[in-house]
Design goal:
The structure is a single chain. By secondary structure, the chain is mainly α. The protein is 69% helix and 6% strand. The protein contains seven helices and two strands; from the N terminus they run ααααββααα. A hairpin with a 6-residue loop joins strand 1 and strand 2.
Length: 131
C-alpha cells in the first residue's frame, strides 16, 4: 500500500524535481525551522547520513540553506522555497486525495485518527528529544 501511495506522490513531485524522501524532509524543515540535522533525523526517524545527503541535494536544488556552523548549524527554507511550498504541498495533497478517493470521508477521517494515534504511540521518545 505504501509503495502505491509513494508512486503517486512521486509523480506529483516530479515537476518540482523532488521525490517523497526529499518532500518529507522539506516538510519537516517547514514545521521545525530553523532545525538541526540531528533533530531532522530524530523527527523523521531516519539515519543521520541520509539526512545529510538529502539536505545537500535540497541545497543544490535551492530549497534549503544551512546557516551557522558546528553544533549551531541550522537548516531553513530559501525564499524561493517559501514561495513554492504551498504549490508543492497542494500537489501532494491532490495526490493523497486521488489515492483515497474511493474511501468515504468518514473512513478517511478514521484512518487519519488511527495513523495519528500510531505515530503518537510509537514515536514519543523521538519527539521529546527534538527540543
Amino acid at each position: 500500500m505504501a509503495r502505491l501511495a509513494k508512486r503517486d506522490i512521486d509523480v506529483a513531485l516530479a515537476p518540482f524535481s523532488l521525490h517523497t524522501g526529499q518532500w518529507a524532509l522539506l516538510k519537516a524543515v517547514v514545521i521545525l525551522e530553523p532545525v538541526s540535522q540531528v533533530a531532522l533525523a530524530k523527527y523523521l526517524v531516519i539515519e543521520k547520513p541520509a539526512v545529510t545527503k538529502t539536505v545537500t541535494r535540497l541545497e543544490e536544488l535551492g530549497f534549503v540553506v544551512r546557516i551557522g556552523s558546528g553544533r549551531k548549524r541550522r537548516i531553513t527554507l530559501t525564499p524561493s522555497a517559501n514561495q513554492s511550498y504551498e504549490q508543492i504541498n497542494q500537489a501532494v495533497q491532490s495526490a493523497h486525495q486521488s489515492f483515497l478517493h474511493t474511501i468515504s470521508g468518514e473512513n478517511q477521517a478514521l484512518l487519519a485518527t488511527i495513523m495519528t494515534h500510531l505515530l503518537e504511540e510509537h514515536r514519543p521518545d523521538e519527539q521529546e528529544e527534538l527540543y
